[in-house]
């Protein structure tokens, strides 16, 4: 340990008392000598921590005292674990450049954090950022499991997000752990504001800052209110990636005492040789960072000018830039940027030569990496998604090479990967354009003019398809972690009416969202379709670049809810229209409430995919029942549409929408195979669905459970195991041929109650759902209710026994409506995908339009567009004879 106080260093700023006005030149020179040295000078000049101990030979570089023990008694050093002269020099130097009273050098950055965490005791809690270095997260997980110390992750870019924990008297918040800028998103936390806030509520809480990204050159958090600062010395302090080290600095004597005790007790102080190397590295710290930072600014500007989304606090408009500018002396030498496509990012990273593909940063050599595949791969993908960590993110850790070489190499990689293209070769640097940007769309449109007039006719001129919504009866949320979910179709459906037209245009009309748009088919970006996407596989991700292109350049943004639906529509049309590219209008309606967790998007995906497959002649129209093989093809495409709409859907909703009935679904997780079984033989069940109309963010709710599973495995894992046993019991109860109907319903009611309680314990409940439960439990109804789907609002399901009087059900619905909820009575377990060719169709090849069609009138699109929910069902029934899976 080194203490920088009480010594005469060049930092002393006291006015010399001996100054005499009669000796002007000596006054000037004394004042000049009293001026504190600038940082670069401080780095380069290593002072003796104890001037009374002079080096016997006058060595101008601190020698390596490569010895474990020291002879004699009562000397300053006896054993290297407790103290070593080389390490003392280093620690003294670190304290000086960090403006700290105390500094310590240990064997790694993680070793430093471990030592700091040992200031805590069981029962304490930590508030930490939600974009922390992965290794810090891992250690936090260990503390939770073995030491009874919990961590609350918050968005530290918003200081107020700490308040719920600071204000909660039950929370023993003993430490706040901050990183700013974060790695790799470069998010900014206001150390000053957070320190003030924390001290107001918990004056003894220790504020710790991981300063690795900045180093003491750019940011000195002790001056901003922090109590303890640590750096991974492996990074900028050493600068050459030739050693591992961690340094800790602090001002408080009590904290320094605790840290010194731990380091001596556990023995992780830095070795003499590594102390020597680190001291040598620190001497050039400011020189290196100046160069690395100026290179980074040039590279950030270069990428931003090409239109990439660049995260770097040196760029105007970076969120929190003003805060960062106040806290730090510069933006640093790490940036990240997004390409919009994981495959593209992989190609860019793989195509660089000068940039080394490596984790870590701070080295004089430039490094490139994809955090989600490398440094942050240990973080659960769901948590990564919740923290908005894009999978395509590329991180650049810039070194001291010539910036022109760095940009040349990056440019070559961008070109080779197809991320940019040359638009003008004249001049010293070719003019590039990012592929897939809006300008490109405009240009493509004019290029495509030549194919105008090639549009063919749809094989089926008019077709109506429909698909049901679903309820998850048991196992929601747990299904993400490999637990079985039981889901069933409901008799609220999505209807897709496709009609041919003759003007080389394509229209999508979504009356429920007050959206409609028409495209000139020739103007769509046809050259961007990859052959590999022609047949979807379950594990295949949609082409993100094409999706970005579609949503930025082709879908009008004014109806926010419709943007993804339209993007999915264009994506599916472009992949399923073959070379004829028929001119059509798709009008899509839903009797299902949209975004209420009842599978409306999956019903949309199935109704749309089947319509495209049949009208474009990829699947022949069924002559009688829709075969399971056809339903599977539709389901595969619908799953792709669901991925476009949701990112990472479980596959349950589209499967129920395609196949109908009820299923037991288990997702494949961590090497365990998934499964999907139909549940057969049960008589359909009546449910009351209640839409609380409380909006919720499914992604955040799912990620919240995932995070708690990581942080509180002892609480969450038993809940998941219990939900598995509920789903298994429900599956066998529904399929049972021996249980009586009454026994079946009684068991399901018990399971409904239990599963709901578990969901509340998982943290996805909501007061509105409890209000619905309380109402349905009241006399005379006494029914059992649980949330269904994501929770946090959304919908509840209430099991309605077979003999439940219709009048009672009506009065319950009125009571719920009086509380502002919307109700639907539905049966669970009915038909899946349905299809009907309305009578006017020119296609007479199918039996579908016969019989029932004779009895029905030509369906009126206007009525279809305008019908209310119940009228819609009647309109569809009158459209012809439906065929189902
Ligand atoms: N903190 C940050 C921000 C880091 O990036 C790292 C390592 O990458 C560490 C701490 C841990 O440092 P070390 O690898 O020296 O243990």
Automatic annotation (TrEMBL):
It holds the Pfam family Cys_Met_Meta_PP. It is found in: Cytoplasm. Its EC number is 2.7.1.36, 4.4.1.13. GO terms for cellular component: cytoplasm. GO terms for biological process: 'de novo' L-methionine biosynthetic process; isopentenyl diphosphate biosynthetic process, mevalonate pathway; sterol biosynthetic process; transsulfuration. InterPro entries: Cys/Met-Metab_PyrdxlP-dep_enz, Cys_b_lyase_euk, Cys_met_metab_PP, GHMP_kinase_C_dom, GHMP_kinase_C_sf, GHMP_kinase_N_dom, GHMP_knse_ATP-bd_CS, Mev_gal_kin. The keyword Aminoacyl-tRNA synthetase does not apply. It catalyses: (R)-mevalonate + ATP = (R)-5-phosphomevalonate + ADP + H(+); L,L-cystathionine + H2O = L-homocysteine + pyruvate + NH4(+); an S-substituted L-cysteine + H2O = a thiol + pyruvate + NH4(+). Signal peptide: none annotated. The keyword Cell membrane does not apply. Residues 578-660 form the GHMP kinase N-terminal domain. Residues 839-856 have a biased composition (Low complexity). NCBIfam families: cysta_beta_ly_E, mevalon_kin. Belongs to the GHMP kinase family. Mevalonate kinase subfamily. This is Cystathionine beta-lyase. The gene is SPOSA6832_02871.
